[in-house]
Amino acid sequence: MPDWGPDFDGISLGDDPISAIIGIVLVILMLPVLVLALVVGLEFLLLLALLPVWVVVRVLFGAPWIVVVRRDGSVVHEEAVRGWRASADRIEAIGAALAGGRGLDAVRTSVPR
Q: TM spans, by residue (predicted)?
């Protein structure tokens, strides 16, 4: 007879009460982790399925995009801008104002919302 793979004759999960108790304890310990992984995976799939709908609604119905300016991890300015292209233009204007050293007062008044 040819050798078809590894030999598992020496490995056993055990058929005594101690091995059963250890197995039950391990299953109980792993159950919350497996349930959490399943919930996180299903939530990710739901978000992935809803992403195209969310983008289409924003583009077609003009829901505003929120442009946020952060400094050291904290929000220093935010505003709602309607339209994808308008939000990209506003981001460029804010970036140019801040890069030019004009500060947040110029950002708040530089381009109408």
A: 20-40, 45-67
R_g of the chain computed on alpha carbons: 28
**Residue boundaries of the structural domains of the chain:** 11-61, 64-110
Alpha helices in the chain (DSSP H): 17-61, 84-99, 103-110
- Cα–Cα distance, 110 to 94 (Å, whole number): 8
Owner of token pair 């400094």: 71
* Token pair belonging to 93: 């204007």
Distance CA 34, CA 38 (A): 6
Which tens digit of pLDDT belongs to each residue from 24-36? 898 899 999 999 9
- Is 64's pLDDT higher than 70? yes
